[in-house]
Amino acid sequence: MDDITRDPRKILPEDINPRHNWGRALPALGIMGVDFEERVDYRRLHRYRLGRAQAALEKSNLGALLVFDVNNIRYLTSTKIGEWERDKLARWTLLTRGGEPILWDFGSAAVHHKLYAPWLRPENCKAGLVGLRGTVAPQFGLMKRHAEELASLIKAAGVGNMPVGVDIIEPPMMFELEKAGLKIQDGQQVMLEAREIKSMDEIALLNRAAAMVDGAYDLVNEMLRPGVRENDVVAEVNKFLYTHGSDDVEAVNAVSGERCNPHPHNFTDRMIRPGDQAFFDILQAFMGYRTCYYRTFNVGRATPVQHDAYRRAREWLDNAIERIRPGASTAHICEVFPKADEFGFPDEMAAFGLQFAHGLGLALHERPIISRVVSMDHPTEIKEGMVFAIETYCPATDGYSAARIEEEVVVTDKGCRVISLFPAEELPIANRY
Fold first, then answer.
1. What is the pLDDT of residue 1?
2. How many whole angstroms separate alpha carbon 246 and alpha carbon 385?
3. Domains of the chain as residue ranges with CATH
4. pTM of the model
5. 376-394: burial string, b at 16+ Cβ within 10 Å, e else
């Protein structure tokens, strides 16, 4: 049966064990559907993600997964109803061993899925409401009602005597599940295990998202001149990304001048001045797949110490990238990161996130996490098909400037491939005087 006639819910072995052809360039194709070349196959993407989750569930001691994290819901169901629902805990999905996902959604969204999401069984698209983070009080009984419904479905699936893995949840809802006879355990680790290896469709989406940020940085390079404010840059980058198909601009950090050291992780209305060192982080998503992509610029001119800070940050980054390959450990990679006291911080926790790597996917932080805070004592293995961002930070000796660089990489069969392509080998000078 070919993909045109096959049941969109049927998962085959090749769906969850795709073959990567690393001999070809990674695609950064357009976003329209076309008939003359293969682009992202979203139904194949759905089967891959659901197959990975089912395999991870079978490997665990859990009988079912109950997820409220919207990234996990999207991974299991290929549904999304808007960025507004990200922090509401208003939707959830149940996946039992050997079963198909059952989705409880916000009001009429459940009716919409029955019409437009044929990869889900219509009877598995349900309207639900538990609490909207406590604004519907637990004593109103909605949590109790849904907990008993979930317990009944889990028992009917034959796994009622096994633990249920939950990712994030309102405490009163967890208490109701326990009252309904369910044993609750951590399910987030199972979902993260499923999500750590990306298919070629996921890699294509991550590469497309990175390509959008390439374009955004060309815009930043043109904008950076005296009189422009940090928030002006943020506004124009948001406009550019949404115009080009972003479904969520999570954040644009814009940090300039004396704000560079220590790194504040935000933006203000500070006005750009001649000679400023300025760095930016663009965090956005295309079809849910995220970027984390820093670049540093100088405005008009740069001092020797600013050049030196950039050179050192680039050297630390390149040394780490050279160590990325399947089978390498996270400890082996972060060994080349400087220790906290070597760049002005009292301990590794205070410096966390500055010399750092983190997985990218439907969430900004997936596996692997590479940091001296955890990786030296708890090394994990780098695997083919992982995608992650790796970033360094170096304060300048003038006491206020700093360089911040980040590259996104795909782990191939022999090493890695960089997908963040805006030039960063040397310090860019915007509107050079």
1. 46
2. 23
3. 13-195 (3.40.350.10), 200-430 (3.90.230.10)
4. 0.95
5. eeebeebebbbbbbbbbbb
